[in-house]
């Protein structure tokens, strides 16, 4: 088992470096992509489908003038707000046995997760003390999920702020550093469910042999690709595709 807080601390530098150095101009080399896209049949359809293809801007070289001290984990969330939804609970039962439907505190994003993932945070996606988007995390234990690569859990966030600076592939490169260092990369794949599109990395043996699998998806809306970026990071037991497919077929944005 790997102490995740230490492994992930390096990631705090990356988003800030991205934002500070957009104007620097030279591209960095991305992770080699392996095309083998599984197709997921969604239960929803966009209201608008005719939009021009979105090509992410080249990622500039990150050369900050001063390296800040890390202050939080890469997937930092603010505390849940005192809203009616938070007071009632972020998750509600659904007809699909074994799952619940969870929303963030603002009811802007939702996703179905296993009903034993009872530790939930619907607070904003926070970076360096500022809210950059909406998010929800769920796990049997969020502490275990945030600090270990060998624990089940989910982070699902959507950020208009990130969309102003990077593309989905660049976001994926940023948030997979810890997994590249501590897991076996199986490959990078295209993702397209007719509503959202992007790329995801699959990892195995996280934290060691027979460790958990991890899937990290960076995506955008096909109907409005420049408005926000989506990040889904999940860890599941080895070989478990049921949880992964359920999450990918039910995550949705309402803004």
Q: Can you offer a commentary on this structure?
A:
- The protein is of the alpha+beta class and 255 residues long.
- Helices cover 20% and strands 30% of the residues.
- The protein contains 8 helices and 12 strands.
- Strands 4, 5, 6, 7, 8, 9, 10 and 11 form an 8-stranded antiparallel beta sheet that branches. It has a 4-stranded antiparallel beta sheet with strand order 1-2-3-12.
- Strand 8 (184-192) and strand 9 (196-206) form a beta hairpin.
- The longest helix is centred in the last third of the chain and has 9 residues, at 242-250.
- The N and C termini lie far apart (38 Å).
The portion of residues forming beta strands comes to: 25-35%
Span from first to last CA? 38 Å
Q: How many runs of DSSP E, i.e. beta strands? A: 12
Q: Major sheet, described briefly?
A: 8 strands, antiparallel
* Number of helical elements: 8
Nearest-integer average pLDDT:
77
Descriptors for this entry?
255 residues; alpha+beta; four-stranded antiparallel β-sheet; 8 helices
Q: Can you summarize this structure?
A:
By secondary structure, the chain is α+β, with helices and mostly antiparallel strands. The chain has 8 helices and 12 strands.
Helices and strands in order, then pairings?
Blueprint: H1 4-8, H2 13-20, H3 84-88, E1 91-93, E2 99-103, E3 109-114, E4 119-121, E5 125-127, E6 130-139, H4 142-147, E7 153-159, H5 160-163, H6 168-174, H7 177-182, E8 184-192, E9 196-206, E10 212-221, E11 229-236, H8 242-250, E12 252-253
Antiparallel strand pairs: 1-2, 2-3, 3-12, 4-6, 5-6, 6-7, 7-11, 8-9, 9-10, 10-11
């Amino acid at each position: 088992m790997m102490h995740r807080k230490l492994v992930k601390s390096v990631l705090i530098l990356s988003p800030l470096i991205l934002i500070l150095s957009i104007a620097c101009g030279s591209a960095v080399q991305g992770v080699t992509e392996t095309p083998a896209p599984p197709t997921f049949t969604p239960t929803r359809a966009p209201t608008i489908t005719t939009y021009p293809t979105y090509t992410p801007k080249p990622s500039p070289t990150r050369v900050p003038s001063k390296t800040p001290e890390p202050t939080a984990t890469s997937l930092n969330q603010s505390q849940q707000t005192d809203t009616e939804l938070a007071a009632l609970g972020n998750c509600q039962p659904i007809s699909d046995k074994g799952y619940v439907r969870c929303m963030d505190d603002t009811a802007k994003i939702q996703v179905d997760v296993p009903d034993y993932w009872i530790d939930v945070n619907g607070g904003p996606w926070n970076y360096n003390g500022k809210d950059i988007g909406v998010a929800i995390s769920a796990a049997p234990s969020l502490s275990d999920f945030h600090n270990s690569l060998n624990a089940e859990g989910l982070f699902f966030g959507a950020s208009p702020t990130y969309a102003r600076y990077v593309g989905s592939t660049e976001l994926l490169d940023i948030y997979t550093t810890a997994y590249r260092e501590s897991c076996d990369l199986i490959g990078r794949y295209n993702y397209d469910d007719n509503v959202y599109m992007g790329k995801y990395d699959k990892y195995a043996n996280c934290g060691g042999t027979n460790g958990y699998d991890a899937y990290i998806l960076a995506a955008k809306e096909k109907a409005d690709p420049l408005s926000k970026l989506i990040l889904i990071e999940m860890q599941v037991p080895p070989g478990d595709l049921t949880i992964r497919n359920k999450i990918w077929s039910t995550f949705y944005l309402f803004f």
